[in-house]
User: What shape does this take?
Amino acid sequence: TGCPAFFQNGANLHDDSISGGVCLVLSLFLLIVCLMGLVNVLQRGLAGMSTRIIYKATNVNGLIGIVIGAAITILVQSSSITTSVLTPFVGLGVIQLEQMLPLTLGANIGTTITGLLAAMVSDNVDALQVALCHLFFNLSGIVIWYPIPIMRRVPLRGARALGRATRRSRLVPPIYIIVVFFVIPLLLLGLSSLFMQKTVGFTVLGSFLVIGVILGLARFIWWWKKQEGLQKCLACLDRRTDMNNTMKTLPEDMQFLKSKVSLLAEHTGLPEDEEAGDAQKGSDGTADDVAAENEEVAGGDKNE
Assistant: This one.
């Protein structure tokens, strides 16, 4: 049973794999399109009284905000929808960043409920363990980063710094995603796999790599803090942004310059082609005069 357009009775494993991949790509595409449409509709609908209502509704205690975020995520079964809906509100100033943090933390808790319910339905103990690990991982993150005010400022300051950097250049978000969600996890996974081989060679290699990573991280922090690495990165982003803006406006600037040249030609009363011809004739005449003077000087030297 299933969708006859993708899955049919009698299909082999290869056919099912291809159909599953096609369905995955289509589902991701539809999810992205729907999220973009949802954000666009919300941005257009936020005006007047609705903005004030949302601001008052979200101006609640942090614990209540966590409960609200978890409840919304449980209803929609996706933390991505919750954060994608609330993020434009923060950008428009409807929700303060301090109010967005507990809602996001609650969404992280709510997204674990789906896996927990699915694990409870199955009789597999391993599935229940994974679901509980997911739940307690998010709960431990909330305990570490939210109750203590000093710790709470760390993600808030990081979010503001990332927002300021993103305003300078659009390359910052993809670089951040690649480094944080791909490079660092793969690096840690690779190092841990070396120690799990239980051989002396891989253990020694992993030890040297760990020492190298620690030294490289310390050198990067020194460059970032003491050698104005932050200012150099920001200056590089500014130069790249200025270059992109210049390339975008270059055709318009050329048209503007051409229009100014045309106005100048009309003001002088000479067509552009005649001006170019006169300039060419003037340069040719100057070259001829210089050649004649050189010949006269050479003839005088011979007579002497």
